[in-house]
Amino acid sequence: MSAPGSALVERALTIAARRAPDAGAVALVREVSEAVVRWANSTMTTNGQTVERRLSVIMLVPLEGGTGAGVATVPAPTALAAGPEGDAVLEEAVAGAVQAARRAGPARDAAPLPAPEDGAGAGSSGTAAWDDGAGETSMAVFARLAEELGASFRPDEASFGFAEHHVTTSWLGTSAGVRRRWVEPGGSVELNLKDPATGTSVWGGEGALDVADVDVAALVERLRDRLPWGRRRIALPAGRYETLLPPSAVSDLMIYLAWSMGGRPAQEGRSAFSRAGGTRVGERLGPLPLTLAGDPAAPGFPDLAYTPVLATTYSGDEVSVFDNGATTGRVEWVREGTVATLAYPRAAAAEYDAPFAAPTDNLVLTGGEDATLEEMVASTERGLLLTCLWYIREVDPTTLLLTGLTRDGVYLVENGEIAGEVNNFRFNESPLDLLRRVTEAGTTERTLPREWKDWFTRAAMPPLRVPDYHMTSVSPGR
Amino acid sequence: MTSPVTRAVDQDFLALPRAALADAALDAARRGGAQHADLRVHRLRTQHLELRDGRVVVAADQETMGLAVRVLRDGVWGFAAHVDLTPDTAAATARRAVEVSGTLAALATERVVLADEPVHPDATWVSPYDLDPWRVDVADKIALLTERSTALLAAPGVDHVAASCVQVKEQTFYADTAGTRTTQQRVRIDPDVTITTVDRAGGGFETLRTLAPPVGRGWEYLTGTGWDWDAELAELPELLAEKVRAPSVEAGPTDLVIDPTNLWLVIHESIGHATEYDRAIGYEAAYAGTSFATPDQLGALRYGSDVLTVTGDRTVPHGLASVGYDDDGVAAQEFDLVRDGVLVGYQVDRSFAPRLGLGRSNGCAYADSAEHVPLQRMANVSLRADPDTDRPTAALIDGVEDGIYIVGDRSWSIDMQRYNFQFTGQRFHRIRGGELVGQVRDVAYQATTTDFWGSLEAVGGRSTWRLGGAFNCGKAQPGQVAPVSHGCPSALFRQVTVLNTGSGS
C-alpha cells in the first residue's frame, strides 16, 4: 500500500535546494506499522492494526550572525509522493520550515550537517536498500499469543495485559549527501495476573523483536509461581529496608538517570550532575565497578541493537537537528562506578571541549557478579524483594530525588526464603544515590521497564541490592 | 500580522472528502457484518516554540492526519487506521477492522453493548477563541517570548530563562452507522516560563515557573486575555529570590491552604482518575491502574467532607476537555461525581454506560489521534466553590494558626489504586497566626485520598475558582494523551502530612 519513502525524501530535498540553495536541508520519512491487542478481566478489550506515515523537513538557513533552524512535519499519505497536489504540500512544508528558521534567528546548536564520509553513508549494518518499501506487521503475529493466552484464562484468576508489535521504517536524507533507510521491528507482551481470593497481583513482561517469539504460556507459569506468595500477608511500616531491586525496577531508575545526563545543564549549574565549579564527570559514585552504557551494537544482547544514525526532529539540551545523519556509537555514561560522559550535541561538545555523545537508544548496566535474583534472595537474611516500580516522578532536580510506588508484588525475604507478601510503599530515592549505596549487583539480563516502556524499551540490567532503600509511606493500593 | 477573528472550521479541513470517506468506510463495515461502525478523520496541528535564555531552540510545526474505523461485530470491537485519506483506503481500512475483530474474537469472552444515543446528523462545533494561533506570524510570537525572556534575564538573581509555547488545533470528523455526523475544531495553548538561579559557589540551583495554566484559548491568551502576564512575570524574580533564602520546612502534620494552581492536579489524580468507570472495573489494571472507588460503593462511599462536591463536564468554556460531541458522537454534558462528600457517579462512554446500568453515556469518549481507538477519557472534573459565601483565599489563610499556603504545581505521583499520593509545588508560604510570613522550601505533602478530602474543612468562594489543567494526561496501551482542565477554588485542609524533601524526613 505504501510508496517508498526514498522518493519523498528526494523530492523534498530537491524542492528545498531550489527554494533555499544556501540552506542545509534534512528530510525524514517515518512509517510505523503497528498491531496491538489488550485484555482485562480475561477478555479482549481493545485492539488495532494501523499505518502511520509522516515527513519532516528541517531547514538550516544561513542568517546574519549564524544559522537558524526550522522544522515542518506533515502527514505523508501515498498521494504526497505523486503529482502536483503532493508537490504543493511539499513546497508549503519547505517554505514553512525556511520561514520558521529565519524567524528563529541564529541557533546556538548550529553546526555543518554531518557528511556521509563521517560514516553515515549506505552500507553499514542495519542499512537496507534505499529504494525499498516499508516493513509491515499485522494481526497474524498474535496467532500464537491468542492461542496460548486464551488457553490460560481461568475462572479462579483474572488476566490483564497488552501485546504490541510494530515495524518502524525510516528514510533519512540530507543536503550533505546522507541517504539512509533502516527498518526496526519491536514488540512486547505484558501480563498481570490477579488472584481474587487473596487480592494478590503479579506482573511480568518481555520484549522481543518478533512478538511471536514470546512464550506466553511460560510467562503465565512464571507468574503463577508467585501467586501463592500472597497467601501470607505481612504488614510493614514505612522505613529504610534492605531491598532487592529486580532488573525491571533497576531499568526504570537508570533510564531516568540517563535522561538527566545533559551536558549543558550540568555545565550551567542547573542539574544533579553539576557541582561547585563544574560537573560530576570523574566523580566516583560507589564502590561497585558498575558501567551504564548505550551501544548500537549491543554486545551480548543482539535484540537490543539499533541503527547507529542520529535522526531527530527537535533540538534540546542533549540532541540537535543539526546533527541529523551523524553516526552514533557506544557511550559509557557511567564507567566502573565513575560518572564518565554527559550528553552533548556536536556544537555543545565543541563549546565545552567534551566528546559528542547523543542519548543512546539502549541502556545496559554491567559490572555485577554472576548471581541471579533467586541466588540473591537465597543470600538475604531479611529484606524486601520488589517486582517493579510505578509512577516515578522527579521531586528535587538538584539531587535527582525521585518518588514512586512499588507495584504488583513486594515480598519479605527471611533467611533466604520468601516469607510472604508485604503492602506496597511509596519511595523517595535518587538513582544517583542508589549507585553510591548499592552493595551487590547480580547478572545482567534483558528486561522490560514497567514505567518508561512507552518511551524506552531496550534495556538490560542486573538485580541490585540496596541496604537502606527509603520507603517513605505505606500505600494501601494493590 | 494578524487576521480577523475566525470561529468557523477551517476550509481546508471542510474540503476533505468527508462524506465520501464516511460512505465508503461505513458501507464496507456493514457489508462485513458490523452492527455498528464509525469513521473518524482526525487532524492535529501543533506548533512548538521554545527559547532558552532568549534564543530559539525549537521552532517546529507538526501536522498529523489519518482516518480511523471502528467496528462492533457480534459484540466484539475491531479497529484499524491509515494515513491515506481516499475512499478506497477508507473501505479497505473498514474491512481490516472487521478482520481484526474476527481474528481475535476467540479472546473476547464478553460482548460489548452500546447505549442508545440521539442521532446528530450534521453537527458542527468550534471552541471559543479570539485569535487563531495559525493566523499570527511566528515572528510576532517569537518576538513576544524573546522580549519576556530578555526582561527576566536582566532581573537580579536570574541566571537562566526557559520560555515555551505549545499551540494545538484539533479537528475531527465523526460519522457512524446510526447517522450521526459531527465536524469539530478546537484550539488550545500551553505557555510556560521558568526562571532558574544558580549558586555557582555552593553548587545548587532553584527554579520557579509561571502559574498560567494551559487553556482552550487562542493566541490572545499570551497578550492579556484570561491571564495577567505582566503582573506575574514582574513578581517572578523576587519570588524566586525569596524562595532561595527560605528556610527548610519542618516535617509533620500541617494545616494547608491550597491554591487552585496546585489543587487542580490533586483533583485530577485522586478524583478525576478514580471516578473513571473503566478503571474502576479493571480495564486499566495492568497499566494506568484501577480505583479504590469501586462501583459497589456508588452512593455510599464517603469520599470526603460535606463541602466536597465534584462534577464532570465537557462544556465549560476554555476547558481543555470541552467539546461539542465526544468520539462516540454523544453530545457534551455536565454530571455529578461526588455530592456533599459522597461518591454518586462515574465518567463513562457508550460501551460502559449499560454496564453501570445507565441508559445514556455522559460523553467521555476520546481518541488522541487517528491511529488510536477512542477510550473513556477524563471530562473536566471540577471542585465546586462555596455556593453561599464568596470567601476569599485570605479568609481561609486567616483560619490557620500555623500552616502553609501552597501555590503552583510541580511534582506529582499516586499509586495504581489512587490511594497514596505525594505532591510538591512551586511556592510554599508559611502561615503564622493567619498571616503569610515568607516562604519555606523542600515541601512535599503525602496523604491517602479519602483522608485528604476528609480533612477538607472549607472551600473558597466563586471568586477564587480557577481552571488548571494539562495537555498530557496519560492512559491506555498503546499510550494516549488527553488534554483536560480542572476548576477549583482555594481550599483549607487540616493536618496533612508534610515531608522535608531536603532531609528526606
TrEMBL record, chain A:
UniProt domain Metalloprotease TldD/E C-terminal: residue ranges? 239-471
Q: Where is this region: Disordered?
A: 105-131
UniProt cross-references to InterPro entries, sorted A to Z: Metalloprtase-TldD/E_C, TldD/PmbA_N, TldD/PmbA_sf
Which PANTHER family does the UniProt record give?
CONSERVED PROTEIN (PTHR43666:SF1), TLDD PROTEIN (PTHR43666)
- The coiled-coil segments of this chain are none
Q: Which organism is it from?
A: Actinomycetospora lemnae
What name has this protein been given in UniProt? Metallopeptidase TldD-related protein
Automatic annotation (TrEMBL), chain B:
Looking at the record, the residues that make up the Metalloprotease TldD/E N-terminal domain are 37-100
User: Which keywords describe this protein according to UniProt?
Assistant: Hydrolase, Metalloprotease, Protease
Tell me the SUPFAM superfamilies matching this sequence.
Answer: Putative modulator of DNA gyrase, PmbA/TldD
Spans traversing the lipid bilayer: none
Q: What InterPro entries does the entry give?
A: Metalloprtase-TldD/E_C, Metalloprtase-TldD/E_N, Peptidase_U62_metallo, TldD/PmbA_N, TldD/PmbA_sf
Q: Which domain of life is it from?
A: Bacteria
Q: Which residues form the Metalloprotease TldD/E C-terminal domain?
A: 254-498
Instruction: Report if keyword Endoplasmic reticulum is assigned.
Output: no
User: Per the similarity annotation, which family is this?
Assistant: Belongs to the peptidase U62 family.
What this protein is called in its record is: TldD/PmbA family protein
